[in-house]
Amino acid sequence: MHEAFNSAAISFLALFPILNPPAMSPVFWEMTSSFSEHDRKKTAFLVGKYSFYLLASVFLFGSWLMKILGISIPVIRISGGLILFNTAWKMLSETEKKEKKSYGDLKIKNAFYPITLPVTAGPGSIAVTLSLAPKESLYSVQIIFSSLGTVLGIFAASFTIFFFYRFSQEIIKKMDTQMKDALTKISAFILLAIAVQITSDGVLAILKT
Fold first, then answer.
1. N or C end of the chain: which has fewer CB within 10 A?
2. Are the C-beta atoms of 190 and 23 separated by less than 8 Å?
């Protein structure tokens, strides 16, 4: 059990900073700005659930699948970073045009793509989750408890996504229009910077090989 709790803590502390739900909640609010309050709350729950399903699946099967397909983590970083870059650039450019509903065409059905992947649980969190995958046999009792702990940590990180996204509207409501616009620009810029960082890390990793 001690091994499980250690793994849960490690996986949560590894994922929370890169998922960064407090900083990403304004991005979520911007992407769901045309939603009703009920739909936004439902979408927050779905994004939290999909993030858990995605990252837990990556942890359990990702490294095995990547070996079969011959895909490396740097390639995942580059491709995912480019998708994230496109999303962030769209947010920045449309904010500059002062269009309030940049993502007015999004619906609840878009909770997985693009809100969960790549915006929330993107290439960075996928790469971190892959690094947590066990390198030894899963038939070891210690590895089984460690893996269960890691899945628990992924669940805890996913719950924080739901929590911060769920209350994003309440936070935004307390701000005036200028503060909302400024926060949207800052959030989009941070997302753009993350995309550039993830892409450059992938490129550098390939160049070193």
1. C
2. yes
Asked whether residue 61 carries a pLDDT value surpassing 80, the answer given is yes
Identity of the highest mean pLDDT range in 71-75, 97-101, 151-155, 197-201: 151-155
* Burial call 35-48: b when 16+ CB within 10 Å, e when fewer: beeeebbebbebbb
CA 33 – CA 176 distance, rounded (Å): 15
26: Cα within 13 Å, side-chain hemisphere? 21
**Intra-chain end-to-end CA distance of the chain, in Å:** 38
CA gyration radius for the chain? 18
Give how many domains the chain has, as a whole number. Answer: 1
pLDDT digits (tens, 9 = 90+) for 9-57: 989 988 887 888 888 888 898 899 889 999 999 999 999 999 999 999 9
